[in-house]
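anyone seen this seq b4? input:
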Amino acid sequence: MKFETITEESIRVLVDTFYDGVRKDAVLGPVFEEALHDAWDTHMPRMYAFWSTVLLGTSSFQGNVFGKHMALSGIREEHFVRWLTLFKDTATRLFKDAAAAEMLEIADRIAGSLQLGYFGERTVRL
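predicted toks r here
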């Protein structure tokens, strides 16, 4: 059964499912493992808070997302292709159309902002 609305609980399922896929992904997994150095236990609550903030407006996340990501080296276009593909697959599998569309719009904006930082232009879209 798909979630109809976005709630704290459904965000947690989304984040857990998405990052489970990221960790198993041949393209993204190594990037995240290198960046997190097996600190998934501390990263996941931050991801719940981040997505709660952007999707529900809870203001529970505090941090510099752009700066943290810009500090990563070796990020290429293929990473954005995989991230967006996995996120879209996860959101559309777990949520009904309206809720998934809202998430995908925000994810696409986030990816666009990061691409501008890395490449000076937007190269990949949902």
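The chain has one domain: 8-119. The chain has six helices and no strands. kinda curious what u guys think
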